[in-house]
Amino acid sequence: MVSVVATVIGTMAAIGIERMKGRGAGIIRAVLITPMIVPGVVLAVGIYAVYLDTRLVGTWTGYVLAHTLLAIPFVVIAVGANLAVFDERLETAAASLGASRLTTFFTITLPLILPGILSGALFAFVTSFDEVIVSLFITSPQLKTLPVQIFSSMTRDADPTVAAVGSLIFLATSLIIGLGLIFGMRGRRV
Asked: Of 2, 75, 114, 127, which sees the most CB atoms within 10 A?
């Protein structure tokens, strides 16, 4: 869920920042990238303080909002990198041939920046999946993420579940990377 929300918001923000091309764009980019720079503990304490007032500690909404905040910078950077090398003359050419802004976006812009969007979504997923510090601060007994559960299991008792989960994650990652390499090589041969 976090990956989808962060990808949509981050992609829209990156496109907006790229279109601004001014001093304000740099300030907005700096604000959006701030969660990457601020130490995790400081961010976690701040989120926890805000969540206490708004009663979001230990809720799905709280998790999604906090993890989305942490994932958006990765999407903004990945999509922004694709937009930096995007040739805007392609959009101008589509418009001169009668395409609407929406048609131009879906037929020209989106396919060309899709690799950046997909890599941003992947980074957002990994960031959310791997986040322990913020999750520890906003967790509840009823709602725990896998990293929090692993951390708790490692600190309290010697449970073989942690080793099993680690092995499954390693195998899944290896399989995904292997499939990506195989399909990448196939695409080059064609």
From this structure: 75
Q: Examine residue 144 and state whether it is found in any structural domain, yes or no.
A: no
The whole-angstrom separation of Cα 111 and Cα 116 is 10
- The residue written with tokens 């299991």 in the block is 153
139-176 per-position pLDDT tens digit: 877 777 777 777 777 777 766 777 787 788 888 888 88
Asked, for residue 178, whether it belongs to a domain, the answer is: no
122 found inside a domain = yes
Tokens encoding 159: 């449970």
In sequence order, which residues have a C-beta less than 8 Å from that of residue 133 and are 6 or more positions away? 40, 41, 43, 44
CA-nearest of 15, 27, 8 to 68 is: 8
| Angstrom distance (rounded) from CA 53 to CA 57 | 9
Condensed to tens digits (0 to 9), the pLDDT of residues 67-125 reads 999 999 999 999 999 998 988 899 889 989 998 989 999 999 999 999 899 999 989 99
- Contact between 28 and 10 under an 8 Å Cβ cutoff? The reply is no
Residues in the chain: 190
Q: Which domain holds residue 66?
A: 2-139
Number of domains in the chain: 1
Give the integer Cα–Cα distance in Å for 100 and 14. 21
Inside any domain, residue 48 = yes
